[in-house]
Amino acid sequence: MKILTLNCGSSSVKYMLYDWDKRWILARGIVERVTVGGSFCRHEKYGEGEVRIKRECPDHGVAIKLILDLLLGRCPGYERYGVISDLSEISAVGHRVVHGGEKFTKSVIIDDEVLKTFKELFDLAPLHNPPNVMGIEAAMKLLPDVPHMAVMDTAWHQTIQPPQYIYALPYEWYERYRIRRYGFHGTSLLYVAKRAAVLLGKDPFEVNLISLHVGNGVSANAVKNGLSFDTSMGFTPLEGLVMGTRAGDHDAAADLYVMERENLTPKQMSDILNKKSGILGITGKYTDRRDVERAMEEGDERARLAFEIECYRLRKYIGAYYAALGHVDAIVWTAGVGEMSSKVRWRAMEGLEELGIVIDPELNELARSRNAEFRISAEGSKVKVFVIPTDEELVFVEDVVALLEGRYDVHTNFRYSFQDPSYRNRMRDEAFAKELKERPQMAKALALPFPDDLLPEEARPYAWWLKGA
């Protein structure tokens, strides 16, 4: 059984083809700059490495056709990167959908009525739901004979209760328009919560966590007894932490004031808040935190200001969720910035020793990889701090297979393969083994022992689990 996952953004399509029977990633990649010109695809076939293909993709349908041609080995000049001989080998397609409102509380098989509801929710997730639906419709035309499933970003947060999700607004707005906190990044936050329980050696429903998904979009999630208790994103993905282009928390009166002064429409203001604010709004030119950090080093004061504002907001949410939970077993960092920026992690957690959060600066600096799970808290820290690379695509695959087999349920009644203490992602392990050859000291920061058959000789002196051997 082979499952294709598609994650369609406004200008990108991320994909993976997974062999469920072998528990193996056959190929994965991303088509970037869809609709905006200069499109290209970064495609990786297991055992062949990554290749970059330039192809103009004026819409998501062309991008998905390129992906299917690559998987089939029908892309001229790149035939050897194919992994299937016929589209009939694909059993189902799983699609990321950001906003399901109150209608969809878990992953669902897509039909016309489901698509209609997703379209009705466009205004709630303007950066995501429209391209999500474009990708679904394009894929359904290209693969009309297989089931398509939607994996809901909001599903993980269905356990949040009214005191956490009802806003202090006229209650009629909730009754009439379902205005409430929904929360997002659910597949990512589910994955890292289950993995954190494994790293802690605890039952997944006996852990309290503060999870920080920090990428272009940013979410904080308070997890109480293994369930989502509160989260920073709200009615839409605009609320909460500072993001690449989104404003996050601020006084809504400022929006009304500027709308009146500059005669802006609600659509224009929505574009400003979602696409021209956040890190971009402060710096005037950057969204990528790597660019921000480089600019800081070169003396760019607005870049430094953006960095400090983001880290302060992260620290504030850590403190707020610590108070909300009362007891915290671990803080978890994930997504691009959370996994790779030791500077952001350090600045956001610096000085929290009174809360029992003590960071080891060496481990924090070493923990920079998308292929391994790290512990960066110091020995004796009351609260553990982990860096866990997310794996949303694996959640997609497992939900899709379970839907196909009629055994899918909400996560409280469903067990994922990655909850098993013996679970390993062999593809990531092999990639990390290559990284260890270049930076063997990273073995010091690993949260779990690394497979002996892949551990490079250079890393063995730093492997803490071998010290007593």
Account of the 3D structure:
With 469 residues, the chain is an alpha/beta fold. The protein has two domains: 2-152, Nucleotidyltransferase, domain 5 (2-Layer Sandwich); 162-173 and 179-387, Nucleotidyltransferase, domain 5, CATH 3.30.420.40. The chain is 36% helix and 17% strand. It has helices at residues 60-72, 112-120, 129-142, 162-165, 171-177, 186-200, 252-262, 266-275, 278-283, 289-297, 301-325, 335-340, 342-349, 361-366, 392-405, 426-438, and strands spanning 2-8, 12-19, 24-32, 40-45, 49-54, 90-97, 108-109, 148-152, 209-214, 218-224, 227-231, 330-334, 374-375, 384-387. The strands form two sheets. Strands 5-4-3-2-1-6-8-7 form an eight-stranded mixed beta sheet, with helices on both faces. The two termini are 41 Å apart. The mean pLDDT is 92.
For the report, how would you describe the main beta sheet?
8 strands, mixed
Q: What proportion of the residues is helical, as a percent range?
A: 25-40%
Under CATH, the topology of the largest domain can be stated as Nucleotidyltransferase, domain 5
Number of helices: 16
CATH class of the largest domain: Alpha Beta
Mean pLDDT figure = 92
The CATH architecture classification of the largest domain is 2-Layer Sandwich
Q: β content, as a range? A: 15-25%
CATH superfamily of the largest domain: ATPase, nucleotide binding domain
Low-confidence blocks of residues: none
* Straight-line distance between termini: 41 Å
Q: What topology, given as strand order, has the largest sheet?
A: 5-4-3-2-1-6-8-7
- Class per helix and strand makeup: alpha/beta
Reading the helices and strands in chain order gives EEEEEHEEHHEHHHEEEHHHHHEHHHEEHH
Shape: globular
Radius of gyration over alpha carbons? 22 Å
- Report the strand count: 14
Please tell me the total number of domains.
Answer: 2
